[in-house]
Amino acid sequence: MEFLLTSLVVCVTPGTGVLFTIAAGLSRGTRAALIAAVGCTLGVVPHMVAAITGLAALLNASAVAFQTIKYLGVAYLLYMACSTLRDKSDLAAEEETEPRSAGRTILTGVLINILNPKLTLFFLAFLPQFVSTDEPYAFLRMTELSAYFMLITFLVFAAYGRFAAAMRSHVISRPHVVSWMRRTFAAAFAALGARLAFL
């Protein structure tokens, strides 16, 4: 449950991938938004592979080192809570008038997430919280959890894109609502970080 809740909070928190998907939905409709969501989801794969292989090697080398990474991960979740709370940037999404091919939209979505180093840090902080040091199939377990994360990413981004126009008028255009959302996400990160520290 902690894994699914943390994944949902991370995916729902507005970032560059979300804004790209919203912009695609606002300017070119549902199909373009879904294509953008696919691109952003595929952009998660390199970070996922890097984190899983590194963590699996670390677990094989030293259970103590793996536990250390786990607690550093808790600290990172708390850092994300502080960063989210202090973020004052606008969540405006500009409409695009130039038509784009599906391939170009997917490529842009992939590049947006590939060039986001926070994803690798997130996986390194996130996955160890749900893998025991005596897990016999740790690599498969982390791969399974990462696949769930990717599925959640796609579903959340697709939902953002599908309802982009409504969200533009009811959420993004209202600064006080955006501020409330940020406080909620920050509190969720802090609570989950504290909870995972005692697992």
Compile the SSE list and pairings:
Blueprint: H1 2-12, H2 16-28, H3 30-42, H4 45-61, H5 63-86, H6 102-114, H7 117-126, H8 138-162, H9 164-172, H10 175-197
Helix pairs in contact: 1-8, 1-10, 2-3, 2-8, 3-6, 3-8, 4-5, 4-7, 4-8, 5-7, 5-10
Rg, Å, rounded: 17 Å
Low-confidence stretches: 93-97
Q: Tally the helices.
A: 10
End-to-end C-alpha gap = 12 Å
Walkthrough of the structure:
By secondary structure, the chain is mostly helical. Helix content is 79%, strand content 0%. The protein has ten helices and no strands. The longest helix is centred in the C-terminal third of the chain and has 25 residues. The radius of gyration is 17 Å and the shape is globular.
Could you write a compact summary of the structure shown?
The protein is built from 10 helices and no strands. It is mostly helical and 199 residues long.
Keywords for this entry:
0% strand, 10 helices, mainly alpha, globular
